[in-house]
Design brief:
The protein is an alpha/beta fold and about 550 residues long. Helices cover about 60% and strands about 5% of the residues. Helix 1 crosses helix 9 and helix 5 runs antiparallel to helix 16.
Amino acid sequence: MFSRVKQLKVPGRTFVGDAVSGLVMAVVSVPGALANGVLAGVNPVYGLYSLIAGTTTAALFTSSVIMNVDSTSAIALATSDALQGIGPDQHLPYLVVLTLMVGLFQLGFGIFRLGFLTRLISNSVMTGFLTGIALLTILGQVGDVTAFQSSASNRIVRVFDTVAHAGQIDLATLMVGLVTIAGIWLAGRWKAIARYSYPIGLTLGALLVPILGLESVALVGDTTVIPRSIPDVHLPDISLIAGMIIPALAISIIGLVQAVGVSQSVPNPDGRYPDASGDFLGQGAANVATGFVGGLPVGGSLSGTTLIRSCGGTSRWANIFTGLFGLLIMLFAARFIELLPMAGLAGLLVMVGIEMFKPARILMVWKTAWIPRAMMIVTFAATMTLPLQYAILLGVGLHMVLYALRAAERVRLERIMRLEDGSFSEAAVPETVPSREVLALQPIGGLFFAGAVELEEELPDVGDAERAAVILRLRDRDEVGSTFLGVVRRYADRLRARDSKLSLAGVSEDVLDQLERTGIIESIGRENVFLATPGYGASLGKAMDAGERWIKEEPADGSGP
């Protein structure tokens, strides 16, 4: 883990780009950090501490070079549920213990190389959970946007209670919230300033207060005083550990799954995908550091990572600068932070919740099969009705039961070679994809949920392969899950990046229907899907012939074989 610190030495031009990226990220992240503190139901300053300590520490130790680690909406909401019933004066000692325990769990997962545990949450479970989080995030802002604080404990009931007491809504507060939402939405559609949409929208909402003299609008300064000094160090109260075990375990799982989602989507600058267990170590170290200063638990943020990259960040320094600039903003711009309206932060969170909705992801799960669909619905319902730590654990438990029923056997790969007489034989699967060869692979075992994740780990590394044709034979498969389809898409993308391609052979009509409904067939190309035929090996033979012809063709850059 500590060897990654050596990667901090970067060229001067890259260093400047990382500094600029870190500054932009800090400007964007400070309002989000405050908002996540509000979402967690604690002092908003604790969200800032997460940015300062968590983001900086994670940058030093994660396997992902530019993964942004910060407080996220899912983790903030789970933290809120974990602290439910605890008085505000006791939030800090409980939060210190909770965050430290999250970090220790994650360090343990990393030390013992337990990256494979993320397979215990299928794509359908995670989709249902995050969709529920998105809706809860939006519903949870009704009080701050309207200035009517319902006494109802359930967020859905609070909405109806607010409507029933519409006459008690403060119109000035509502206007600030709506202007913030509109500002973020409009700025986000202007490409030149899209990356700054959150601070722009929040600034517009904040300016209404002094310009129009809206004295009834609550400000951050009315809730807390932003410290003008570095965070204090807090030691954990050992007596609180027992009550925080379950919430800490659940939050650690949420953070790890989010981090894996980032690492599977964003390769390192060298083109290789990060090691999940290595990211666990870095994330664990970040939460330990954050816990000692009283910050919220942190996790991998895909939106933050994307912003870092879009701003030109290419090394660990981008996130280090994010944390350092966040500290400077807190120290020297505290007065401006205190002038931010609470309704503006709530409006910001409403937009976060809206952007968390992924209709394409939901439809993909819905269109695959009834079991993933049912798992998504059950997890969504649990997220909306149960404390979040139990909702995610229920999703994990549900997945484990179904996995035991449908994917009990381990997945393995075998290579299929075509002999001179046209027959086929098995051979050892290479560790890397060979250049300018046809590589036919057949998975053995279940391809649902964890089986699909295991298959992804078994697939040969694309490495430096060029003009290779890889074939996955799906003979006798009448149904595949959304997790497997995600594996196919990612592997096809990796091959395409090396001027190579992925084909599917022995595809049944049912599997073809799933490929079409989910749009995966467009990712791999319809010409690279070969339907199953009555004759044994006929479909595979056609795929091999097509692969050999394609290899002999001129590549897209015009360079010949």
